[in-house]
Structures are given as C-alpha cells and as structure tokens.
Amino acid sequence: MKLSVDTHTHTISSGHAYSTVLENAYAAAQRGLSLMCVTDHAPTMPGAPHFWHFANQRVLPRFLHGVGVIRGVETNILNTDGEIDMDVRILDMLDWVIASFHEPIFHPADKQQHTLALVKAIESGRIDAVGHPGNPNFDFDYETVVRTAAKHNVVLEINNSSLCGSRAGSEKRCEDIAACIKEFGGRITTGSDAHFAYDVGNFEHVKQLLNKVAFPTEQVVTHTPATFLRFLQERGRQPIEAFAALY
C-alpha cells in the first residue's frame, strides 16, 4: 500500500526531538512523500513550546524541498471530559489536530475512564485524529471508540513508532484496533511519530500491519495527498490554495 502523507512528525521544538522542520522536509522528500504534518507537542507536555509556536506556523512556507507542509499540533488529552491543551483560537489557525494520551499529563487510570476521555475528545469537534491509540497503558473499549470516531469523522492513527519499540506492547493492540475499524467503519491515518529526521515517512511496520489484516485502502486517509486534503475539507477546513494541484 502506498502512503503519501506523514501526519505525525516532531521537531526540536518538542524538546525531546532532534531535527528541524527543514531537515524533516528534506527527509520526507527523500522518501517520496507528498505532504508532511508538523505536529509538535502542545504546551502541557514537559519541554514543549509556548502556544505562540503554534499560532506562528503561518510563517512556514507551504512547500519545503517540494513537500507540502501541513500546519498542526499533537495535543494532550487532559481529563475524562476530553479537554485538550490548546485554545480553540489557535486550533482554528491550524490545518490538523491530533489528540493523544501521554503519561505525564493523563496518568493511566482504567478502561472506563480512558474510553470516556476518548469519546468526549472525539465528540468535542476539536480534534481530527487520535494519536497512538495502541499504547497498552491506556486500554479502552475499541468498539465504542471506533464507532464514535466513525460517526464524528475522526481518524485513529496507526503509529509506526509504536510498532517498533517506543510503546512496548502496542503491536497486537494496533492490529486489533485496525481490525475493529475494518469491521465497524471509520478510517485511519498513518504517522511515523518521527523524533529524528531519518524516521520521517518510515511506515515499514505500519504497512506490514495493514497487509496482515488486509486493511482496505479506501479507509486510509493518507493513501494519496488528494485523499488527505479532501478529508481535511470534510472536517470543515477551507481548501489550501497552494495545494490545488494535489487535489
């Protein structure tokens, strides 16, 4: 399966990543990507940048090294009300919003609380994707979350980093989540979760998993740039004029 968009990358601004936007874009070009999302950690994550960092993404060119740049953020799910750590005024300036559980922010609790937090975050209308849902520290009711995400047109992420050691124990869970989405509907996004440029666009383990469960291409929003850009419009975003040739 061809994957043309990396929807989850970090730069040095995240505090524990090691490459710049330019370095990531160059790596994306070398991998043959069409689009790359810049998704640094939102402010409550230790070491993360101030909210001005996200508001100022308008200065980023729409193309770097020939790769389209999507302006985004990886927010933190804060509580069982599904609140995230980014003001709606900033969210409205961005193209793409991931919401994730991170242990320093949302201390792992139980399956019911995790499920409630995810459902509320999805229902809020403020997020486009759930990041690395395979994390075994945050068990949840797959069917409930998958059905809610499908209803609200929010995608769940299959995260390459989770499949190669960053969140040990994610592999089987990601496989089960993908199978659940295949059965009950909805779509996925694919992210490298790169914290170093060499990993941008690395979907080796994602592709293996999707092949293993025979996941339908039409349920993958990152299959082509046009598929991803149309998804953003479905989410209520205005078309990005600079990317007109990619639709």
Automatic annotation (TrEMBL):
Amino-acid positions noted as binding Zn(2+) 2 in the UniProt annotation, renumbered to this chain: 16, 41, 195
Domain Polymerase/histidinol phosphatase N-terminal: 5-79
Residues at which Zn(2+) 1 binds: 8, 10, 74, 193
GO biological process per UniProt: bacterial-type flagellum-dependent swarming motility
Xref: Gene3D superfamilies: Metal-dependent hydrolases (3.20.20.140)
Keyword Magnesium among UniProt keywords: no
Matches recorded under CDD domains: PHP_HisPPase_Ycdx_like
Keywords assigned: Hydrolase, Metal-binding, Zinc
InterPro entries named among the record's database cross-references: Phosphatase_YcdX_put (IPR023710), PHP_dom (IPR004013), PHP_phosphatase (IPR050243), Pol/His_phosphatase_N (IPR003141), Pol/histidinol_Pase-like (IPR016195)
GO molecular function: phosphatase activity; zinc ion binding
Name used for this protein in its record: Phosphatase
